[in-house]
Design a protein that fits this description.
The structure holds two protein chains of two kinds.
Chain A lengths: L4 H28 L19 H4 L2 E5 L2 E9 L2 E3 L2 E5 L3 E8 L4 E5 L5 E4 L5 E6 L4 E6 L12 E7 L4
Parallel strand pairs in A: 2-5, 4-10
Antiparallel strand pairs in A: 1-2, 2-3, 5-8, 6-7, 6-9, 9-10
Chain B lengths: L5 H28 L9 H34 L8 H23 L17 H31 L7 H32 L8 H29 L1 H4 L7 H14 L16 H13 L1 H21 L7 H4 L6 H24 L4 H4 L3 H31 L6 H27 L15 H4 L2 H31 L26 H25 L12
Helix pairs in contact in B: 1-2, 1-3, 1-14, 1-17, 2-3, 2-4, 2-14, 3-4, 4-5, 5-6, 5-8, 6-14, 8-10, 8-18, 12-14, 12-15, 14-15, 14-17, 15-17
Classes of the chains: A alpha+beta, B mainly alpha.
The structure holds protoporphyrin IX containing FE (HEM) and copper (II) ion (2 copies).
Chain lengths: ~160, ~550
């Protein structure tokens, strides 16, 4: 194929840019564990309220961090108010009691789909104490825009 | 009108009418999002209209327009009568019946599931059946396209097929590979489930199948626009195509890379392992490559045009281009907006950054630049170019046609930029209201949602201009002698058919890549213990 010189340069530059993107993604995964929530664990969506993994919803604190167990449902999160410590890793475990929802903490990069039959899990650390808005960001029915919760990040006690 | 032109013309009009209906829905949505107090405004109407707008724009307008363009390419680039016209008409009517079925279900409020129809939201069976018929109709189109290519090849041994047909064949191949996914999703999972024949459905499996289809769908929209950019635009600009063989390379790259990337839409899904998402991400980033080549080749072709008209300085050639020609203006402006869209796409695809924008208003800002402009505005420009030729009439209301692409550009800048920004600020997409009990974070979005509504108004005005021009031309345009459709000549003559014309080979490569990307994760998925979901209809 006969490719003019300028276009050849452009193509090399384009290829180089893409390789750079790929290396960036790779570095993110390798060095800062920048990995999207990809937990693989299933659950019977009809048994969510009684399943031992979700029967006790809320926050469990430990010296090293906290675990949040929550259920998304039309059109609320249970629990609707979540308190977590600042500066420590917080692990969220979520599932849905009905349709597919989203779970996004506005102003952070915490964001996951919540799909019935599956458990979403991710760990994140909040550095700034304060009140955060949690929204459902996947259409889940006529009350979709009313589906939200509050996250309160509290100054760690010590 | 020439009898044989009725086939593309009928498809074009279904596309134009679908666009018109969808644009009316969009006006209401855009105003609603700014929380204006309108009499008909309710959550039920909002989500119903987003469903109708998404289905009509993304699935009906595009598909029928692309089918029309395919037949135009057969008639005017291959210069032959459409072989298999009966099958083509059958495909048309099957598709029309499908659109009517699906639209009825949506307008009756029985299918407010949005155009992505993720289960366990369940629509009326007529919705799934309607979509199936649209796809079956498009398969007949695909068959007719392939049969015509074969016939042409037999009659022109040793010649390379015209670039326009090369690109349309790539479109057909991408579409055939892609639609396997949605066909399995709808026929095996959703239709029986919505009829009550099966009790539950696995939502993640459905999403995997949907996005197996959903990403190449994007290239099904884009490739015909690229065909117009490569094979018609340089001619209208008054120049030549900078490189025919690079065009072929681009189309082949899309055949290979379009499908094995769907997990990038599921970056935040549970139930899909991170390693496979990473593989799809790497492949996704390579899709930027053919589009970057296109940006260069098409821009260079315009420069050639400017210089052939006597331009000398560095940028002087820009001034010599026919900015008053509605087709040229539509394409040139859609290219500019697509450059922004491509940048946003790279952000979406980046593994880590995706979480910041996933399902936020950023996404609708993004795809209104890509499908909503790069494809749709190009199609509107093409309509100005094609309808007078097919109908044998002068373009009516030419002034509106001249202004329309600029209005779209302006409206889209306002709409898209404001949505990108509110998205970065965390505003979710697909919401009727963004009030959230008066939360401070939500208050911060409101100035920008008003800006987005203003953009929506401008876009609607532009869409209305387009419709007026089309109706005026079809009904009242001055009759005129038929004028041929002229294709761009390449700067260097087209050689013998080469490696890039061996479609069978590239289909094979594409299938192998699809298997690498999907076979193992789907197999693993099916083997794991899974619990299905019963249906829900919260609308
Ligand atoms: C008349 C100009 C247009 C305006 C004012 C407009 C406006 C909108 C608005 C306000 C939404 C709803 C966003 C949400 O709630 O998330 C939307 C969604 C959408 N639009 Fe447009 N749009 C226009 C043209 C187009 C075009 C030309 C296309 C594609 C060919 C398109 C494709 C879509 C799709 C696929 C959705 C997504 C629906 C969903 O999230 O389910 N739009 N549009
Ligand atoms: Cu929701
Ligand atoms: Cu995609």
């Amino acid at each position: 194929m006969n490719v003019p010189l300028y276009e050849k340069i452009w193509m090399w530059a384009a290829g180089g840019m893409i390789v750079a993107f790929i290396l960036m993604v790779f570095a993110g995964v390798a060095f800062s564990a920048l990995e999207p929530p990809s937990h693989v664990e299933t659950i019977d969506p009809a048994q969510v309220w009684t399943d031992a993994r979700f029967a006790n919803r809320g926050v469990t604190q430990s010296p090293t961090g906290a675990t949040v167990i929550a259920v998304a449902m039309m059109f609320a999160f249970n629990p609707a108010e979540i308190h977590v410590p600042a500066g420590k890793p917080v692990t969220f475990r979520l599932t849905s009691a009905d349709v597919t929802h989203g779970f996004q903490i506005v102003g952070t990069n915490a964001n996951t789909m919540v799909i019935p039959g599956y458990i979403s899990q991710f760990t994140t650390t909040f550095s700034t104490p304060g009140e955060y808005l949690i929204v459902c960001n996947e259409y889940c029915g006529l009350g979709h825009h009313q589906m939200y919760a509050t996250l309160i990040v509290e100054e760690a006690s010590s | 009108m020439n009898r044989a032109d009725r086939l593309p013309y009928a498809h074009l009009w279904v596309a134009i009418l679908a666009f018109g209906a969808a644009a009316a829905m969009a006006l209401m949505q855009a105003l609603s999002r700014a929380s204006l107090d309108l009499p008909y405004r309710s959550a039920k109407m909002y989500y119903l209209s987003v469903t109708a707008h998404g289905v009509l724009m993304a699935l009906v307008f595009t598909t029928f327009f692309i089918m029309a363009f395919g037949y135009v390419v057969i008639r005017y680039a291959l210069r032959q009568d459409v072989l298999g016209a009966a099958a083509a008409w059958a495909g048309f009517w099957i598709g029309v019946v499908g659109v009517v079925l699906a639209a009825t279900a949506v307008l009756a409020g029985k299918a407010t599931v949005l155009y992505t129809f993720y289960p366990p939201l369940k629509a009326h069976p007529a919705f799934y059946l309607g979509l199936t018929l649209v796809i079956v109709g498009s398969w007949l189109w695909a068959g007719v396209m392939i049969a015509n290519y074969r016939a042409w090849k037999r009659a022109h041994a040793g010649e390379a097929v015209p670039l326009a047909m090369h690109g349309m064949l790539a479109t057909v191949i991408v579409w055939l590979i892609a639609t396997v996914g949605v066909a399995v999703e709808v026929l095996v999972l959703l239709l029986p489930w919505s009829l009550g024949l099966t009790r539950t459905v696995d939502p993640v499996l459905a999403r995997i199948l949907f996005w197996y289809f959903g990403h190449p769908l994007v290239y099904f929209w884009l490739l015909p626009a690229y065909v117009a950019w490569y094979t018609l635009l340089p001619r209208v600009a008054g120049g030549k195509l900078f490189s025919d063989s690079l065009g072929r390379l681009v189309f082949v790259l899309f055949i290979i890379l379009s499908t094995p990337v769907g997990f990038h839409h599921q970056a935040l899904d549970p139930g899909v392992p991170a390693g496979w998402k990473l593989l799809h991400t790497f492949l996704t980033l390579w899709i930027l490559f053919p589009s970057l080549i296109t940006a260069f080749t098409v821009t260079a072709s315009m420069e050639v045009a400017g210089r052939m008209k006597g331009a000398t300085g560095l940028l002087d050639w820009l001034k010599r281009l026919p900015w008053g020609d509605p087709f040229f203006a539509a394409v040139a402006l859609s290219m500019i907006l697509f450059a922004i869209g491509g940048f946003g796409g790279a952000v979406n695809a980046s593994f880590g950054m995706n979480a910041v924008v996933h399902n936020t208003a950023w996404i609708q800002g993004h795809f209104h630049l890509t499908v909503g402009t790069a494809a749709a505005l190009t199609f509107m420009g093409l309509a100005y170019h094609l309808v007078p030729r097919l109908a044998g009439r002068e373009l009516e209301l030419g002034l509106l046609a001249k202004v329309q692409p600029y209005l779209w550009f302006l409206g889209m800048l306002l709409f898209s930029i404001s949505n990108h920004v509110t998205g970065l600020m965390g505003m979710p997409r697909r919401v009727y209201e963004a009030d959230y009990g008066g939360a401070a974070a939500a208050q911060a979005w409101h100035g920008l949602t008003t800006l987005s509504a203003i953009g929506g108004l401008v876009l609607f005005a532009s869409a209305a201009f387009f419709l007026l021009v089309m109706l005026g031309t079809a009904l009242a345009g001055k009759r005129r002698a038929p004028e041929p459709l002229e294709w761009a000549e390449p700067l260097h003559p087209v050689g013998k058919p080469g490696l890039l014309d061996r479609f069978g080979l590239w289909v094979l490569v594409a299938v192998v890549l699809v298997l690498i990307a999907y076979a193992v994760p789907i197999w693993n998925h099916l083997r794991m213990e899974r619990f299905g979901s019963p249906p829900f209809t919260p609308f």
